[in-house]
Design goal:
- The complex is a heterotetramer.
- By secondary structure, chain A is α+β, with helices and mostly antiparallel strands.
- Helices cover 27% and strands 17% of the residues of chain A.
- In chain A, strand 2 (76-82) and strand 3 (88-96) form a beta hairpin.
- Chain A is elongated, with a radius of gyration of 26 Å.
- In chain C, helix 2 (25-45) packs antiparallel against helix 3 (49-74).
- The termini of chain C are far apart.
- By secondary structure, chain D is of the alpha+beta class.
- In chain D, the strands form 3 sheets. In chain D, strands 1-2-3 form a 3-stranded antiparallel β-sheet. Chain D has a 3-stranded antiparallel β-sheet with strand order 6-7-8. Chain D has a two-stranded antiparallel sheet with strand order 4-5.
- In chain D, helix 6 runs antiparallel to helix 7 and helix 12 runs parallel beside helix 15.
- Chain D is globular and about 70 Å long.
- The termini of chain D are far apart.
- The chains are: A alpha+beta, B mainly alpha, C mainly alpha, D alpha+beta.
- Chains in contact: A-B, A-D, B-C, B-D, C-D.
- The A-D interface holds A 9-10, 13-14, 16-17, 19-21, 24, 30, 41-42, 44-46, 70-72, 101-105, 108, 117, 150-156 and D 60, 63-68, 131, 135, 138, 141, 145, 148-150, 152-153, 156, 158, 161, 164, 166-171, 190, 193-195, 197-200, 288-290.
Chain lengths: 156, 323, 164, 371
């Protein structure tokens, strides 16, 4: 008798499983067809750091080196010089994307609101050298959409 | 001479039919699994719904480098996929597509199919042994044990049908169903046993132990690539199609039209019924986890064979009472 | 039909020779399967299709699989030395010639009746009738014997496993 | 009969399972001795994913270590951060605002759910059922989206900071999380119908890979692997950290310690985590999310150990400071590393298929084993 009951139990659980897949068979698929359809990224998505510019379109970076020291992977190279108005201005700001771990620590370290995170995520390229983003590129990217600087203690 | 030409033509038609259907089945399997799993499946190659994906895949596999690993048993390695294809093709010789549309109406049809089915094992042997790989060796042993165990209930399940029809010929079996009713109504137990044993016979989840990608990586065809692998793959789907066609023929009346829907040609009915089984097999595959080898044996010897024997006894009693 | 017969006969004999001469046991076993299959084809030519199907089912499907299975599990050492020819050449030669002679003598001295009747259209029913009437005792005894053998084999295997 | 026994020669076959094998969950190599299909011994070989995590930590400042912890157990990154941050805070005696503590609890519990969902999917895959994997990922994606909105990343969050968390929760966090928890409930029922309650699943898992309570304790198991053997040891209950003592939840315990129990424990843990998240969202206090933290982090000389109940077990972090801006030593007590050695204990004498199920049931992440 227990043999029959066992068989009945097995069949019952298998049928329950089949019902689940049958129901999902007719439910809507959740696939996103990537290059045509795109993900909507939230504000503050950490793509990679970019440079913010002031009203005149110049960099706010003063080449103080805080970001360089904050970076765990040493991917930032900054060089600065005295500008026309006597203040220090960055002349060179290079980001090595091949090593960047997108941790946001540089943005948090910056005291001059010069850095933010872009929401770019299609970062693949054919040559290693293309992963070195120079200052002009980063400034240009910093003017685009989806750039946000979220630092410690912020509200989203 | 004309007869020979006619046979060759028939053979070519059947061959094309199987290859096209096997490719269609591969596409279908990917779509069905995707729909069950909330995905879309292939969408890019051929619109709508990526219908040309299998064609692209076969073309790709055709042009791939033919890799024969250095330590394999070359003869067996090369022979494996060819032998695998043979039974998948040979089964179709006796399956009736329509009233007068059968390559060879053998009067021992059912027995012939059982015999052909047992050759399939040889391909797994040659491929699995010839690969000289530990995974494929385990896989070959597994499938040997599996085929021994499932040949028995499969044939026993067929006996009920043969007893009812009083003939081994598939055409006669269909005619007999035309006169009475589909044998799935008379033989529910036999059908259940046939379905389970059949799925085990064509190595599909939950009985795909010889392939078991999570344990044996890919089993007997782990060393195969390119065209040879494609042949194994097509043979697998050819076998599935053959099993479905057999199930449709033996239990669902083959090409006969139900409910007097005669205006639809028999060929279409045959395909519809065949694909119904294909869908069931896919549905089962994408629902269940895999059983273990000893449980597989238990299922065969402790459940399927007793039930099949019971079915034969019941059929015998039924025939004695009602005739 | 003639051509098919000669081709099949050649394949059967060649693969049978291969079974003996191959040094790889697996190759021998698979060639034996081919031999069996060829014999099945010969049965088809003789219009004994039932016998052919059974030949394939039993010899190719079951017996050969068992042989290959056994070889796989029990093989030892390099495969290409697993089926070496015997060193007893003289004795073998004698035994072979003696067997051949005996067979030829048997074949030659038998009177082969030639039937003018056409081969039976269906072979299944006559065979079934014979099995269940004239040869029913032999048939049942064979069945019982096989069952006993199977049970005995299971008991043997089980006992060995229990003792390990 | 005796002679027959002696004649039967049994040959053992040594198989390299991995480092490229679909079911070893990463780059684990298991040298398995087989007799037929029966496992006679397992020898896990680790180190294929070794990235010198502990040594790198000695070259980075205290803050810079946090993003690196994400990369050990990459499936449950937040709990790694938590273990490290708790250890450093202990060393420095930092005050953490209550709101930050609640947020940490919520995130850690959500992380546990995310991790267990991934485990469920891959475990089904190990058993040959591919469909549950995608159903589990449907739920997990929703959760990862919530994480993405909160922390800005989908996997390596870098969210928990010394003295609190990086930023406050987004505006609709509560609504979305509650919606997710409801979705999860439905999902869990579906998983049960599809896989866990399935007869084949029970046959594949019940009574296999048994780890007795004594063995589990002796081998240093923790987390669901330990609790499935019947030992009710959960750091959240027995050594409460953060604000776990304020919440009402159960610790699911198994009886036999077999694969099935380990699975059920994890499934129930998800429900308990959902309970905790609901309570924490209800009682979430207002306030800052970061406490007073010195500009330059220089913990006083000394050492500290902090352990959290990670999804896989007790995740411990031991830090030593020489008073400088960099850690003198960081030691990671990884539960997966401890559990990996259990493989030989639980899988011996079972079949190859069970071995795969056993690997899946102890839920190892090679990134954490090798570090």
């Amino acid at each position: 008798m227990s043999y029959v009951r066992n068989v009945a139990n097995v069949v019952a659980t298998l049928l329950v499983g089949l019902r689940v897949t049958l129901r999902e068979w007719f439910s809507r698929s959740i696939t996103l067809q990537y290059p045509e359809q795109r993900w909507e990224l939230p504000r503050g998505y950490r793509g990679h750091p970019v440079l913010l510019s002031d009203e005149e379109g110049k960099t706010k970076c003063t080449a103080c080196g805080l970001c360089v020291r904050a970076c765990p992977t040493d991917v930032i190279t900054v060089k600065g010089a005295k500008g026309e108005d006597g203040k220090r201005v960055a002349t060179e700001w290079v980001l090595d994307m091949s090593r960047c771990i997108q941790c946001n620590l540089c943005v948090e370290a910056c005291k001059f609101d010069a850095l933010a995170m872009s929401d770019r995520y299609e970062l693949a390229c054919y040559r290693r050298e293309d992963l070195l983003y120079d200052m002009d590129t980063l400034l240009e990217l910093g003017r685009g959409d989806g750039v946000a600087a979220i630092t410690v203690g912020d509200k989203l | 001479m004309q007869a020979v030409l006619w046979s060759v033509l028939k053979l070519l038609i059947v061959l094309t039919f199987i290859l096209l259907n096997a490719m269609l089945l591969i596409w279908l399997e990917r779509k069905v699994s995707a729909w069950i799993q909330l995905r879309l499946g292939p969408m890019r190659v051929g619109r709508p719904q990526g219908w040309a994906q299998s064609i692209a895949d076969v073309l790709k596999l055709l042009f791939k480098e033919d890799i024969v690993p250095s330590r394999v048993d070359k003869v067996l390695f090369v022979l494996g996929p060819i032998i695998a294809f043979m039974p998948a093709l040979m089964v179709w010789a006796v399956i009736p597509f329509g009233p007068n549309f059968v390559s060879a109406d053998l009067n021992i049809g059912v027995l012939y199919i059982a015999a052909i089915g047992s050759i399939g094992l040889m391909s797994i042997f040659t491929g699995g042994w010839g690969s000289n790989n530990k995974w494929s060796l385990i896989s070959a042993m597994r499938s040997a044990a599996q085929l021994f165990s499932y040949e028995v209930p499969l044939v026993l399940a067929l006996i009920g049908v043969v007893m009812l029809a009083g003939s081994l010929s598939l055409t006669d079996i269909i005619r007999a169903q035309q006169e009475t009713a589909w044998y799935i109504l008379y033989q529910p137990l036999g059908f259940l046993v046939f379905l389970i044993a059949g799925i085990a016979e064509v190595n599909r989840t939950p009985f795909d132990l010889s392939e078991a990608e999570s344990e044996l990586v890919a089993g007997w065809h782990v060393e195969y690539s390119g065209l040879r692998w494609a042949m194994y793959f097509l043979a697998e789907y050819g076998n599935l199609l053959a099993l479905s066609a057999l199930a449709a023929t033996l239990f669902l009346g083959g090409w006969t039209a139900p409910f007097g829907l005669d205006f639809i040609p028999p060929f279409v009915w045959f395909l519809l019924k065949t694909y119904l089984f294909v869908f069931v097999a896919m549905w089962i595959r994408w629902t269940f986890p895999r059983v273990r080898i000893d449980q597989l044996m238990d299922l065969s010897w402790k459940f399927l064979i007793p039930v099949a024997l019971l079915n034969i006894a019941l059929t015998g009693i039924g025939i004695t009472i009602f005739s | 039909m003639e051509i098919v017969f000669w081709i099949t006969a050649f394949v059967v004999i060649a693969s049978a020779v291969g079974v003996v001469t191959m040094t790889n046991l697996i190759h021998s076993a698979l060639l034996l399967a081919l031999t069996m299959f060829g014999v099945a084809v010969l049965f088809v030519i003789l219009a004994a299709d039932f016998l052919a199907a059974v030949q394939v089912l039993v010899y190719v499907g079951a017996v050969m699989a068992l042989v290959v299975f056994g070889v796989m599990i029990l093989q030892r050492g390099p495969m290409n030395l697993s089926n070496m020819p015997s060193k007893h050449v003289l004795g073998g030669l004698f035994a072979a010639i003696a067997t051949m002679g005996f067979l030829f003598w048997g074949l030659g001295s038998t009177e082969w009746p030639v039937s003018e009747a056409a081969p039976a259209a269906t072979t299944v029913e006559p065979i079934a009738e014979l099995l269940f009437t004239k040869y029913v005792v032999a048939f049942e005894v064979a069945g019982v014997l096989l069952t006993v053998a199977a049970i005995g084999a299971i008991i043997l295997a089980k006992e060995v496993r229990a003792g390990d | 009969m005796t002679s027959a026994k002696q004649e039967l020669h049994r040959e053992e076959m040594v198989i390299n399972m991995g480092p490229q094998h679909p079911s070893t969950h990463g780059v684990l190599r298991a040298v398995v001795t087989l007799e037929g299909e029966t496992v006679r011994g397992v020898d896990p070989v680790i180190g294929y994913l070794h990235r010198c995590f502990e040594k790198i930590c000695e070259q980075k400042t205290w803050t810079q270590v946090i993003p690196y912890t994400d990369r050990t157990d990459y499936v449950a990154a937040l709990t790694n951060e938590l273990a490290y941050v708790l250890a450093v805070e202990k060393l420095m005696g930092l005050e953490v605002p209550e709101r930050a503590q609640y947020i940490r609890v919520i995130m850690a519990e959500l992380q546990r759910i995310a991790s267990h969902l991934l485990w469920f999917g891959t475990f089904g895959n190990d058993l040959g059922a591919f469909t549950p994997f995608l159903y589990a990922f449907r739920e997990r994606e929703t959760l990862i989206d919530i994480f993405e909105k909160t922390t800005g990343a989908r996997l390596t969050y870098n969210y928990i900071r010394l003295g609190g968390v990086r930023n406050d929760l987004p505006a609709d966090f509560e609504r979305e999380t509650l919606a997710f928890l409801e979705k999860l409930e439905k999902g869990l029922e579906e998983y049960h119908n599809l896989l866990i309650g399935n007869a084949i699943f029970e046959y594949r898992t019940k009574g296999l890979g048994v780890l007795t309570a004594e063995q589990a304790v002796a081998w240093g198991a923790s987390g669901p692997t330990l609790r499935a053997s019947g030992v009710a040891w959960d750091l959240r209950k027995s050594e409460p950290y953060l604000v776990y003592d304020r919440f009402d939840f159960e610790v699911p315990v198994g009886q036999k310690g077999d694969i099935y129990d380990r699975c059920i424990c994890r499934m129930k843990e998800m429900e308990e985590s959902a309970k905790i998240v609901r309570q924490a969202l209800e009682g979430l206090p207002e306030g800052d999310v970061v406490g007073k933290v010195p500009r330059v982090i220089k913990p006083p000389q000394g050492q500290a150990y902090a352990a959290v109940e990670a999804p896989r077990g007790e995740l411990g972090c031991f830090v030593v400071s020489d008073g400088g801006i960099k850690p003198y030593r960081v030691k990671w007590r990884s539960p997966c590393f401890v559990h990996l050695q259990l493989l030989d204990v639980i899988a011996r004498g079972e079949l190859v298929a069970d071995f795969i199920a056993n690997i899946g049931s102890i839920d190892i992440i090679l990134g954490e084993v090798d570090r």
